[in-house]
């Protein structure tokens, strides 16, 4: 008796696109790098921008914070809407639009004549960046076959980690040779090169049946996210989430987002399909990513101050010291799929969270004279942990959804990541500030009463006053560094707790079998459906080539 093996489903990606998929991924990685790199470069330029003209813009601390926050507010507020529009209008079109706006914003920032202009132009950059990030991941889902998604998304995730770590190095090199605006102007040639590559290589794709657009749903999502992030930012700035400027927008944002969810459950054409979250693999992956970035962005915040203010390294040296974090992500992210194949998604993400939590516990061993090699080992372990969390969690999210919803799925992924990161900076930053104030307050009695508040706000505030001879406060340097190290230990334990919570979520809810990775949890198409999808893709390729609209 002979048996006939079931016929393999035909390829979902047209051959013309499949042949150039790695070139397409390279273009997408460059567009991703320039968006993620920008924020990490800006952190290095803060002190220079604060310098009086002509060296900088003479920006105050508050203006510097809003140069970062204006970008974050617009970026996070539009992320979900941008992903939705990509599914409806075409991901390539949305990506090109986002890159053009981001490049224009970068050029304007480099020519800003005042802090107010810089803040406004940073918001323009955030507007463009919101259309870039979800489109890159959505396009990856549509140019790679399902079995190659883990490898492609691993490279995509590694690029994010690389950009976060090399930003300070790039910024330090630019500021060593050029004026402050160079940290923005450098984006322009990269954007131009990426745009050329996109026009030539990247195919368009969209949801063939998007339904009617729901303006009220879009508005509710934007208002809720912007209010929530604004409140989180204000609470972090003041190290007090009880102030009216913080808790009112936080509560208001949560109320609006709850109304958004309730409305989406009843809407005829929802912008977000709430039933996606009933899939525990999808929900657990989203939460794991949010918690991982909560911890990562928090430690990035205090790590820079430890390296520069406590240990005395320059911004460029600080960037180089964080390279092990990038190297580990670059090496392990594309290889996380091998761990998944052997042990499953649950084990891989849980192991990653365990490494992240362990790295934060490792921060408690760092003091003022600890060998710097210890920090290098900690950074490498942390990078390896992130590499084991991000690709499997992202693949699980995207594979839980139909491919035509890739833009919306990518937007959910990135929105939770950005919200988690913003919460990490705000909450862990507030914890760091509170612990530091508690540690330094007993040493400020020698200062005039008017100076005690500014001196106790941060280690930079204390060291700034200690450096001014007229205050005779040089004796504050050692207590300030000791107080910061203690505050860093407390904050690191808080970040470790967030990572431990992510570990629990992974163990409780993620799939244990590797079979669920890269597609088993996603809706399966029949062979006929696959043939039809391939034909539609080929029609899209023909339309791209002739300029005619596709069906």
Automatic annotation (TrEMBL):
Residues 24-514 form the Major facilitator superfamily (MFS) profile domain. GO terms for biological process: response to antibiotic. Keywords: Antibiotic resistance, Cell membrane, Membrane, Transmembrane, Transmembrane helix, Transport. This is MFS transporter. It is a multi-pass membrane protein. The keyword Cell membrane applies. The chain crosses the membrane at residues 22-46, 66-85, 94-113, 119-141, 153-178, 184-203, 215-233, 245-263, 284-307, 313-332, 344-366, 372-398, 419-436, 487-510. It is found in: Cell membrane. PANTHER family: EXPORT PROTEIN, MAJOR FACILITATOR SUPERFAMILY MULTIDRUG TRANSPORTER MFSC. InterPro entries: EmrB-like, MFS, MFS_dom, MFS_trans_sf. The keyword DNA repair does not apply. It comes from Streptacidiphilus pinicola. It comes from the Bacteria. Coiled coil: none annotated. Pfam families: MFS_1 (PF07690). One of its GO terms (cellular component) is plasma membrane. GO terms for molecular function: transmembrane transporter activity.
């Amino acid at each position: 008796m002979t048996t006939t093996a079931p016929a393999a489903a035909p390829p979902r990606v047209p051959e013309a696109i499949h042949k150039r998929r790695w070139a397409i991924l390279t273009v997408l990685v460059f567009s991703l790098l320039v968006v993620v790199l920008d924020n990490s470069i800006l952190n290095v330029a803060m002190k220079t921008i604060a310098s009086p003209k002509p060296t900088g813009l003479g920006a105050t601390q508050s203006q510097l914070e809003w140069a970062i926050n204006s970008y974050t507010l617009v970026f996070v507020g539009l992320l979900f809407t941008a992903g939705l529009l990509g599914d409806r209008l075409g991901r390539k079109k949305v990506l090109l639009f986002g890159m053009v706006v981001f490049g224009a914003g970068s050029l304007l920032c480099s020519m800003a004549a005042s802090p107010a202009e810089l803040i406004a132009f940073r918001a323009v950059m955030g507007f463009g960046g919101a259309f870039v990030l979800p489109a890159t991941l959505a396009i990856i889902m549509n140019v790679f076959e399902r079995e190659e998604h883990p490898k492609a998304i691993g490279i995509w995730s590694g690029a994010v980690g690389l950009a976060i770590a090399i930003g300070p190095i790039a910024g330090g090199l630019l500021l060593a040779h050029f004026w402050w605006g160079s940290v923005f102007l450098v984006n322009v040639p990269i954007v131009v090169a990426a745009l050329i590559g996109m026009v030539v290589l990247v195919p368009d794709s969209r949801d063939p049946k998007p339904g009617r657009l729901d303006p009220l749903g879009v508005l509710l999502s934007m208002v809720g996210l912007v209010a929530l992030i604004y409140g989180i930012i204000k609470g972090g700035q003041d190290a007090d989430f009880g102030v009216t400027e913080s808790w009112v927008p936080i509560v208001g944002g949560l109320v609006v987002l709850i109304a958004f969810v309730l409305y989406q459950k009843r809407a005829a054409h929802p912008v977000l399909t709430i039933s996606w979250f009933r899939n525990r693999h999808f929900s657990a992956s989203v939460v794991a990513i949010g918690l991982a970035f909560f911890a990562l962005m928090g430690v990035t915040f205090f790590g820079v101050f430890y390296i520069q203010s406590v240990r005395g390294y320059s911004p460029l040296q600080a960037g180089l010291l964080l390279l092990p974090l990038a190297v580990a992500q670059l090496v392990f992210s594309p290889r996380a799929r091998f761990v998944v194949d052997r042990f499953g998604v649950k084990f891989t993400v849980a192991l990653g969270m365990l490494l992240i939590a362990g790295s934060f516990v490792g921060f408690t061993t760092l003091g003022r004279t600890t060998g710097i090699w210890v920090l290098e080992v900690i950074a490498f372990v942390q990078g390896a942990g992130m590499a084991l969390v991000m690709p499997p969690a992202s693949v699980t999210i995207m594979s839980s959804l139909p491919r035509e919803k890739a833009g919306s799925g990518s937007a959910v992924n990135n929105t939770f990541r950005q919200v988690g990161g913003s919460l990490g900076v705000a909450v862990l930053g507030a914890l760091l500030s509170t612990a530091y104030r508690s540690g330094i307050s007993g040493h400020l009695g020698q200062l005039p009463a008017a100076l005690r508040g500014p001196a106790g706000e941060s280690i930079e505030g204390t060291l700034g006053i200690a450096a001014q001879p007229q205050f005779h406060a040089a004796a504050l340097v050692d207590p300030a560094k000791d107080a910061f190290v203690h505050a860093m230990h407390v904050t690191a334990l808080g970040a470790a707790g967030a990572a431990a919570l992510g570990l629990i979520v992974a163990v409780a809810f993620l799939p244990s079998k590797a079979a669920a990775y890269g597609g088993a949890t996603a809706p399966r198409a029949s062979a006929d459906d696959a043939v039809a999808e391939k034909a539609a893709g080929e029609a899209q390729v023909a339309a791209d080539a002739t300029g005619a609209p596709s069906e």
